[in-house]
Structures are given as C-alpha cells and as structure tokens.
C-alpha cells in the first residue's frame, strides 16, 4: 500500500498540454541564432538534440547547442520562447484530453497539484492564459522559480514541496511527465510515484529505462492509479 499522495507535480507540454510539434516548430525560429539553417546537417544534429532533451530547461538546451556561448544561448532561447508564444497565441495550444478533469479530480481528492515546465515563465503564463488554466492548479513553477537548473534535476519538485508544504515526506509525492527528463527529475526527488505518460515525446521503453514506476496512456489515468495504489490494489 502506497502512503497517501498529497502532492502531485505535473509536467505541462506533452503531459497536460498537447505539444503537437510546437517545440520543433519554435526551434526553427531559434536555429538561425545558433548559426544552423534549416535543411543543413548542423540543423539536423541540433534538432536531434532538442528531441532527445525534451522536458529539460530550454536555456540549458541552448547553452549546450551554442557550445557554452552564453550570449548566443540567450539569444536563441529568446527567439525560441517568442516563437512558441506566438504559436500559442495563434491558437495552436490545446489541453491533453481529460487533463483538466484529472487535475480537478486530484484536487477534489485532497491532493495539491503543481504544474511544472521547462519553458520560461512568460511562455508558461501564455499557455495558462490560452487554456484558461490560471487558477486550475495550486501552484505553477518554471526553472527560474527553482534556482534555474530545471529538469532533470529535482529542484522544481522539491521547490513544489517547500512552497506548498503539502507533504510531510517525499514519499507522499507523485510526479508525472512524458519525457525521460521528467522521470529522472521525479526519481532524483525521491517521489513515491513517478509516472510516465504516452501523450508526448518519449515511448514506454525510454520512460521505463529512465526509472518510471508506472507508464500510463495519459495523465487522465493518474487519479485512478493513485487511488488504487493507496488502496493496495
């Protein structure tokens, strides 16, 4: 029987929010700032890295791609965040089916819900406004809110615990996400439940190899999973 889960940290893009290729489309706008024109081998290599690091802090990804050139990394990140924000504002943003109901069910069951992201705060807020989710969760966090490192570090999960004081132990925390970075972050934080979902970037094998305790078709399945675990089923 699992201890009562009182704090749930949920990723956004790919987990509660449909990505639908927006990250890759926004990367195209940042490629020029990195000196990689679309259609070139360099662009293809950088795009492969973006895919492999889905879920991580975007500024960290661009620092890697720029070879440590902080000015170029920040310029590329700004282009990326601006392009992603425009796509969202133009209507290319939808909730994963059942995500809102799942969050409402989790909170109705007495659990505190925190939405986390690898995006900057301005982009996170744009997504929340587009979906009408400003008051849906108890708290929202981006990497800057947790010291800047983002995933796969445990910082956002632990910041959620410190900010909300919703759990007495990390064994009362559940984390859900669609990427290996999400899973590694939850595992590093010591969460009792680290659930991968199949609505985003990475497949079941990748999620399990990263340490997922469970793999679900969707975040919509999470409330029932937690109830079953707590009931010992």
UniProtKB/TrEMBL annotation:
Domain of life: Bacteria
GO biological process: DNA repair
Pfam families for this protein: Hydrolase (PF00702)
Gene3D superfamilies noted in UniProt: HAD superfamily/HAD-like
A GO cellular component entry from the record: cytosol
Keyword list, A-Z: Hydrolase
InterPro entries: HAD-like_hydrolase_sf, HAD-like_sf, HAD_sf, PhnX-like
UniProt-recorded Gene Ontology molecular function terms: phosphoglycolate phosphatase activity
UniProt protein name: Haloacid dehalogenase
């Amino acid at each position: 029987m699992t201890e009562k889960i009182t704090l749930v940290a949920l990723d956004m893009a790919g987990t509660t929010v449909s990505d639908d290729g927006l990250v890759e489309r926004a990367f195209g706008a940042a490629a020029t700032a990195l000196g990689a024109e679309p259609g070139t081998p360099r662009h293809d290599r950088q795009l492969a890295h973006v895919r492999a690091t889905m879920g991580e802090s975007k500024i960290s990804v661009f620092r890697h791609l720029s070879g440590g050139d902080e000015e170029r990394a920040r310029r590329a990140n700004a282009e990326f965040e601006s392009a992603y924000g425009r796509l969202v504002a133009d209507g290319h943003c939808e909730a994963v089916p059942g995500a809102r109901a799942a969050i409402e069910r989790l909170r109705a069951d007495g659990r505190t819900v925190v939405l986390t992201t690898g995006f900057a705060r301005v982009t996170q807020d744009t997504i929340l406004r587009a979906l009408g989710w400003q008051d849906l969760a108890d708290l929202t966090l981006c990497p800057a809110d947790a010291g800047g490192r983002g995933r796969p570090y445990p910082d956002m999960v632990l910041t959620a615990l410190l900010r909300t004081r919703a759990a007495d132990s990390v064994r009362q925390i559940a984390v859900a996400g669609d990427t290996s970075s999400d899973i590694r972050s939850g595992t590093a934080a010591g969460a009792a439940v680290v659930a991968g979902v199949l609505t985003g970037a990475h497949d079941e094998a990748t999620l399990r190899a990263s340490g997922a305790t469970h793999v679900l078709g969707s975040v919509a399945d999470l409330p029932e999973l937690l109830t079953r675990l707590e009931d010992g089923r």
